Amino acid sequence: MNPTDFGEPSDLSSRATMSLLLLLLLGLSQALPLQEDGGKEEKAPDTVDITTRILRSNNGSNEILLEGDLLAPRTRNAMMCYTQNCFWKKNSSSLVTVPFTVSSEFTSSEKQLIVNAMQGFHSKTCIRFVPRKNENDYISVENKEGCFSELGKVGGSQVLSLNRQGCLYYGIIQHEVNHALGFQHEQTRSDRDNYVTINWDNIDPQMAYNFAKQVTNNQNTPYDYSSIMHYGRTIGQRQGLSSWDIIRINKLYGC
To answer: Principal localization (predicted)?
Structure first.
C-alpha cells in the first residue's frame, strides 16, 4: 500500500490549522465502521468530519492541547499511556467500570446523548461507564472551551470537555472517551510511516511535535483508516467505533 499524505494546508484559523493540519488521505479502509443507534442523532452533513469539528471547537482554547485535542498531562512527564497505572481497573465481575459525572450545564437531552455514546461501548466491550457514587477516580464531563480529554486514567477527577456549541456529536463523544480509555490518534502510532507520509514542509516547525510518532502498543492489529481515532477529511469516520477500535479495546482491557 502506498503511503498517504498528511499536512495539506486548510482554511481553518492558523491556530487550529497548526495544531493539527487537516489531512489529505487516500486509500481503502481496512475496517468497516459500525453504525450505533446514537449516531442517528447527528444533524450535520456527512461532509463535516471529526477533524474539522474538533479543531473549530478548540480554536482559541486556553488549554494546552497536543495533537489538537489531548490535554497536556498533569501527572505524567510525557503523553504516554502504556503502563497498567493509566488504565481503568476490572471489578470482580470482569467488567471495567469507569465512573463519570456530567455537568449540570448540559440539558437533559444533551446528557442523554452523552450517555448514549458511552453506552455504545457496552454492547461490544467489557467497558461500563457508570454514574459516579463516591469513587476517587472518575471522568468529569464538562462544558469547557472545546472538545478534549486527558489520555488514559490520570487519577482523581479528570476533565473530558464537550463544548455544547460544537462537540455534542456521537462520534466526537466516542473519540474523546476513547482517549480517556488510553487510546491515542491512529496516525501517531509507532508504525504509521508504513501507511501515511507526513508533509513536514506544510507544518510550522514549532508545531511539528503534534505529528510525532508515539510509543504505542498496536496489539498486533492493522493500521485502521476507518478508526474513530483517525483524523482526516477523506478517511476516518464519525459514526462510531470501527470493528478494529472494538477489537483493540477488548485486547487492551482483556475483555
So the answer is: other
